[in-house]
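Quick illustration for those who missed Monday's session on complexes.
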Amino acid sequence: MTDATEDNNTPQPGFETGGASAAQVGSQPHRSGFVAVVGRPNVGKSTLMNALLGTQVAITSSRPETTRKVIRGILTLPQAQIVLVDTPGIHRPRTLLGQRLNDMVDASLADADSIAFLLPADQEIGPGDRRILSRLRSEFAKKDDDGTWTWRVPVVAVVTKIDLLSRGELMTKLMQIDQFANFTDIVPVSAQDKDNVDELVRVLVGTIPEGPQLYPTEQISEESKESQIAELVRGVLLEELTDELPHSLAVVVDSIDYPQPEEPDEDAEDEDADGEESDSEESDSEESDSEESDVESDSDKTTGETQSQVQQTPRDKQAQQTPQKARVSISLYVERSSQKPIVIGHKAEHIVRVKKKLRTPINRIVGMKTNVDIYVKVAKNWQSDPKQLDRLGFMMQ
Ligand SMILES: Nc1nc2c(ncn2[C@@H]2O[C@H](COP(=O)(O)OP(=O)(O)OP(=O)(O)O)[C@@H](O)[C@H]2O)c(=O)[nH]1
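Prediction with guanosine-5'-triphosphate bound:
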């Protein structure tokens, strides 16, 4: 493994994952800082974040470009706090959404004390990796007279998915990566098997500066509950829906309502109205490109009599009669009305399955038992419309 960075911090020994149970060997000053996690789509960023943090904060999926938002996970150890910044894959933007995602990546990188550059063990180094490297170099390295690059912040190559390689193949891969750039360190891991993740933590701790704890010990994410739930829903939808549609889906958590103390669940009386399934045959026609066909006007339609979908399972109905539950209202935005039946599924089968998968994790995020309402709405061509991108949460930095 190379260590070519002049001002690189030496990794500190004695840290291991596991939060409060982690032990420190020797006496080291406390460290804290931001580590940006970058890599091409599908390299395993989200899975690694989850393995590092030991909990589900970023969504994972077998489809590329799942991650749309910068998600921060906070790893608190006895002598260090690492704030991990997950980034949407750096890629060539095709839509305005893509451009904004790239802007988010810029913002994440600007804050970073060090970079974890993920490279998949099971794939050749490709144009996507080279594009990321040149972007990192343009922001974080200087070219010396002899043509070599020196990093201004530590850049650690994290070789992911090593469980897919034999030992011999891994050695060859590590040598290729060593040739690829003068990384501060190279750490092979399997997030799936939790192999060498502790070593990665130890190395990353060494890349952040001395400093006090930035967040309370119990905090693992900077994300709001709404945002965590929206990411979770997107992840579940990606698993559920099998074609390209999910990438034209946006998820917005409209509200999380907590029950008033000692009041019965007043939603129980609405259940029949909500239970009616309309299967998206409604009038969100392709008609206009006018300003009116945006999120708000479609929202109005879907919250009226022809509301697309609030599928009630018997369990939901039973749950509604039990007081002291929270209620989460979620809107799924598609780009065209013809996409609604795909999301909803025959006899609402997709929504029913999605809700079933969501129940437990949403309860955990909300902190109590929760009823979930899902509405499917149309936000015409939202990926290319600046106004709608703003409304759906993809703001300019
Ligand atoms: N075998 C193996 N598969 C992994 C490992 N880590 C991730 N994967 C798989 O790789 C795929 C992509 O993982 P993600 O964590 O969603 O990747 P990502 O880089 O966050 O993806 P984007 O959000 O699209 O950028 C999923 O199918 C994971 O199960 C690993 O350590 N070993």
